[in-house]
């Protein structure tokens, strides 16, 4: 009952005129950003971080959440109309959605994506409402060794799941941890990796890292691969669905809602894997299996619902444990740090107005997105005609102006350029970005919890394994690390030859 009361109070916060305006701005920006290929919600939130210093935290986070949900909606538009996913999670939607569009059913594909996103987003947010307090109660029992184990699991999971190569994942994590170490040692007061520059004594601001890696790095990467010819956009009619479309879509919507949420809540779970699982499930269960590969509406409805449900699941570990599992949640975690807030179990106790106002705004933003996406789909499609040089030149301009406006420091602009070149390089060489950002944000926290655990045990390493939870987490870490060898051994036992080293090296080159 306390949860329902808190949610009602959250609606009182979210329904104020100012916060409703922030929600509308967020969902509109998020949809536009999701529509534009190559610009994801992580980049948008990173760009807005320097510009929101003067806003109240509640308004800023309501806007960020709107951008997050809106990006999930908008990503399906490019997948369906030009076969170019605006978000990685929309890749599966492109498989069937674009085929539907080429058969003259673009309107039905967009409608099932929008309505499915609304239903799944609402169900996912309801699960967030009732699951988050349970997670908070569990987190309050954590000791320093448990927190360190959970963060270590996040590191290993991110490196093992994100990208095609574990080696590159751990390399990206190492870069992030190194950046996180820059500054002054909190225990000894010694300078670390500051190279005699006084301004680096406090380390590199996470906002500078986020904007440099996401916004500047992505802009440079897209500019290096820029196509001069504008994409061909499939025409759209009135966005709605017939009775048969409804009959074939409602079950995939519900199944996708319950598939996506748990994956979003897992460390490095993300939304790419559950959307693929949803597609395979719908293909297996459908009575119209022959249509798959040629524009089956179930292949759009299920993955899009899964995509948006996982977005709600991502907020569970971020709010209750302070653990980011996607790029957007990592940037939002840096936004919490920007306001001097630390996500975790105590956040619900210390900042209930912020937390429940944010959660309530998800219901409001989800409704706004449905109202924006159904009638205005042709308008969003016109954004695809914006010349890319103008778009990315504007991103670089606003990123630079925003960073300089925060601290009025030329060093921030130099760091922005260096980190932007680093972001370009890691894309060029196929390193995943999420482990780097997780390393920057969680590295100092993991170091703090490690030192606390060792201080409590007088330096005995056994102090890192003092509870059943930490033992279970280390067992999960061992499974993550050993799984490739176990899988090869199982294949050998079944008489299947394991993959040769040469193809494995080729796969590692895929980003």
UniProtKB/TrEMBL annotation:
<keyword id="KW-0472">Membrane</keyword>
<feature type="transmembrane region" description="Helical">
    <location>
        <begin position="311"/>
        <end position="333"/>
    </location>
</feature>
<keyword id="KW-0812">Transmembrane</keyword>
<feature type="transmembrane region" description="Helical">
    <location>
        <begin position="20"/>
        <end position="49"/>
    </location>
</feature>
<feature type="transmembrane region" description="Helical">
    <location>
        <begin position="167"/>
        <end position="184"/>
    </location>
</feature>
<feature type="transmembrane region" description="Helical">
    <location>
        <begin position="204"/>
        <end position="223"/>
    </location>
</feature>
<feature type="transmembrane region" description="Helical">
    <location>
        <begin position="466"/>
        <end position="486"/>
    </location>
</feature>
<feature type="transmembrane region" description="Helical">
    <location>
        <begin position="429"/>
        <end position="446"/>
    </location>
</feature>
<feature type="transmembrane region" description="Helical">
    <location>
        <begin position="138"/>
        <end position="160"/>
    </location>
</feature>
<dbReference type="InterPro" id="IPR002823">
    <property type="entry name" value="DUF112_TM"/>
</dbReference>
<feature type="transmembrane region" description="Helical">
    <location>
        <begin position="109"/>
        <end position="132"/>
    </location>
</feature>
<dbReference type="Pfam" id="PF01970">
    <property type="entry name" value="TctA"/>
</dbReference>
<feature type="transmembrane region" description="Helical">
    <location>
        <begin position="389"/>
        <end position="422"/>
    </location>
</feature>
<keyword id="KW-1133">Transmembrane helix</keyword>
<protein>
    <submittedName>
        <fullName>Tripartite tricarboxylate transporter permease</fullName>
    </submittedName>
</protein>
<feature type="domain" description="DUF112">
    <location>
        <begin position="20"/>
        <end position="438"/>
    </location>
</feature>
<feature type="transmembrane region" description="Helical">
    <location>
        <begin position="354"/>
        <end position="377"/>
    </location>
</feature>
């Amino acid at each position: 009952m306390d949860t329902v009361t808190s949610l009602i109070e959250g609606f009182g916060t979210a329904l104020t005129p100012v916060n409703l305006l922030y929600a509308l701005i967020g969902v509109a920006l998020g949809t536009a950003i999701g529509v534009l290929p190559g610009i994801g919600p992580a980049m948008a939130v990173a760009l807005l971080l320097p510009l929101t210093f003067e806003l109240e935290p509640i308004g800023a986070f309501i806007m960020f959440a709107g951008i997050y949900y809106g990006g999930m909606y908008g990503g399906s538009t490019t997948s369906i109309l030009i076969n170019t996913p605006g978000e990685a999670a929309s890749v599966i939607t492109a498989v069937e959605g674009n085929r539907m569009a080429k058969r003259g059913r673009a309107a039905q594909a967009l409608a099932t994506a929008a309505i499915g996103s609304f239903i799944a987003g609402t169900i996912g947010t309801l699960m967030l409402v009732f699951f988050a307090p349970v997670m908070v109660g569990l987190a309050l029992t954590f000791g320093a060794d448990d927190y360190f184990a959970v963060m270590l699991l996040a590191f290993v999971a991110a490196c093992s799941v994100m990208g095609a190569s574990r080696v590159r994942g751990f390399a990206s994590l190492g870069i992030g941890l190194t950046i996180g170490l820059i500054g002054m040692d909190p225990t000894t007061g010694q300078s670390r990796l500051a190279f005699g520059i006084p301004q680096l004594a406090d380390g590199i601001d996470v906002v500078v890292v986020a904007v440099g890696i996401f916004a500047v790095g992505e802009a440079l990467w897209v500019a290096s691969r820029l196509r001069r010819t504008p994409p061909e956009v499939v025409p759209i009619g009135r966005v709605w669905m017939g009775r048969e479309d409804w009959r074939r879509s409602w079950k995939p919507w519900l199944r996708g809602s319950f598939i996506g949420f748990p994956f979003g809540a897992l460390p490095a779970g993300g939304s790419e894997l559950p959307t693929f699982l949803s597609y395979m499930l719908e293909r297996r269960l459908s009575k119209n299996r022959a249509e798959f590969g040629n524009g089956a509406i179930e292949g759009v409805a299920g993955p899009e619902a899964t995509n948006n449900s996982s977005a709600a699941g991502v907020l569970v570990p971020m709010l209750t444990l302070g653990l980011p599992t996607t790029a957007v949640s990592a940037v939002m975690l840096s936004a919490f740090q920007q306001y001097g807030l630390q996500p975790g179990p105590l956040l619900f106790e210390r900042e209930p107005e912020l937390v429940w106002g944010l959660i309530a705004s998800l219901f409001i933003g989800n409704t706004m997105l449905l109202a924006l996406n159904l009638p205005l789909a042709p308008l969003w499609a016109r954004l695809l005609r914006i010349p890319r040089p103008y778009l990315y030149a504007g991103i670089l301009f606003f990123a630079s102006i925003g960073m300089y406006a925060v601290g009025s420091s030329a060093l921030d602009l130099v760091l922005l350029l260096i980190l932007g070149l680093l972001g370009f390089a890691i894309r060029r060489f196929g390193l995943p970005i999420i482990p780097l950002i997780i390393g920057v944000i969680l590295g100092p926290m993991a170091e703090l919890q490690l030192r606390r655990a060792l201080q409590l045990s007088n330096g005995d390493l056994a102090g890192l394994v003092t509870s059943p939870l930490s033992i279970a987490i280390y067992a999960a870490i061992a499974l993550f690390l050993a799984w490739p060898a176990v899988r090869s051994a199982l294949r050998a036992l079944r008489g299947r030859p394991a993959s040769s080293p040469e193809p494995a090296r080729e796969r590692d080159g895929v980003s």
